[in-house]
């Protein structure tokens, strides 16, 4: 959960629209992440959705690079 939370926090922090991005893991026994995001004008949910897509794209590129290196 920390891996996902920190990844999303980093991707969000790269967006110029985001003024604050942080995450917490409420309890180590439960696989959940709470995001706190403040934006300038865009709705936070739109920015978070975009960040999830960007993080997914980055993971896909990393996976392809890893697979290519292992061949």
Features:
71 residues, alpha+beta, 2 strands, flat
Quote the distance from N terminus to C terminus. Answer: 30 Å
**H/E element order:** HEEH
Query: Given the structure, what is the number of helices?
Result: 2
Query: Sheet with the most strands?
Result: 2 strands, antiparallel
Q: Strand portion, in percent?
A: 15-25%
Shape: flat
* Estimated radius of gyration: 14 Å
Counted beta strands: 2
The secondary-structure class comes to: alpha+beta
| Strand order in the largest sheet | 1-2
The percent of residues in helical segments reads 40-55%
Q: Uncertain segments of ≥5 residues (pLDDT<50)?
A: none
Arithmetic mean pLDDT: 95
Short description:
The protein is an alpha+beta fold and 71 residues long. The chain is 55% helix and 18% strand.
Describe the protein in words:
It is a single chain. The chain has 71 residues and is α+β, with helices and mostly antiparallel strands. It contains 2 helices and 2 strands, in the order αββα. It has a two-stranded antiparallel sheet. α1 packs across α2. The longest helix has 27 residues. It is flat. The N and C termini lie far apart (30 Å). 11% of the residues are buried. The model has no long low-confidence stretch (mean pLDDT 95).
């Amino acid at each position: 959960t920390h891996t996902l939370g920190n990844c999303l926090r980093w991707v969000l922090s790269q967006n110029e629209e985001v003024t604050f991005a942080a995450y917490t893991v409420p309890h180590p026994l439960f696989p959940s992440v709470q995001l706190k995001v403040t934006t300038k004008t865009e709705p936070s949910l739109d920015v978070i959705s975009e960040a999830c897509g960007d993080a997914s794209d980055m993971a896909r590129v990393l996976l392809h690079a890893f697979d290519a290196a292992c061949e």
